[in-house]
Amino acid sequence: MTFVFAPPAPVSLAVAGSTDRFPVRRVYCVGRNYAAHAREMGFDPSRDPPFFFAKPADALVPVSPGSIAEVPYPSATQDYQHEIELVVAIGRRGAGIDAARAQEHVWGYAVGLDMTRRDLQLALRDKGRPWELGKAFDASGPIGPLTPAAGVPGIERAGIWLNVNGETRQRSAISHLIWSVGETIAHLSTYFMLEPGDLIFTGTPEGVGKVVRGDVLTGGIDGLGEISVRIV
Ligand code: MN
């Protein structure tokens, strides 16, 4: 068999402390999963079930620790914003997963940025239209290396932060998630068969804001290190 053109290389992430790479299948994202962020977006935080959207796997931008990755300012927006997030990597297949057993499906964790064309997202949201133009554009998912779950036993209580040009913009803790990692996996797996290689961006805390060309964003999570990107 021959392809009509060369298929793209598989998307993969570095693994901390290893030369092995983690092949990415799908990228799911949770909306409004921290109460203070739900409020800043104009919503009352609630225990309504979590909702999900997705990015294409090739929207990821793998970022090496200790380097500054270049991320292009996207077309068609005047309000390009940062969202620092804990990313969960799935390592075992499952549907209808019980929250109490969800950890068995977690391979590891990474620091990610759910970059957003906020003006487009809000216009689409207000018209009841899908969010792809606001969320699923090229290079919208900078992400650091994966750390195996066993290496970060305290991740559910870790601090999470983002600085822009050295000034703190976002600072919270994973313990403030409305829906925990286990609960998020339980909900998502009622709609999709989760497979090894799937990633879940778990939502951003408060403090989201606009960035422009030249800005340097540095974000981190305790136990997972930091990633840095420059908007070009
Ligand atoms: Mn987000």
Describe the structure.
This protein is mainly beta and 232 residues long. Helix content is 12%, strand content 34%. The chain has four helices and 18 strands. The chain has helices at residues 35-40, 118-126, 132-135, 181-188, and strands at residues 12-14, 21-23, 27-31, 51-55, 60-62, 68-71, 80-82, 84-90, 106-113, 116-117, 141-143, 147-148, 159-164, 167-173, 199-201, 209-210, 216-221, 225-231. Strands 4-3-15-8-9-12 form a six-stranded mixed sheet, with helices on one face. It has a five-stranded mixed sheet with strand order 6-18-17-13-14, with no helix packed on it. A three-stranded antiparallel sheet has the order 10-7-16. The longest helix has 9 residues, at 118-126. The chain is globular, with a radius of gyration of 17 Å. Manganese (II) ion is lined by residues 29, 83, 85, 114, 201, 203-204.
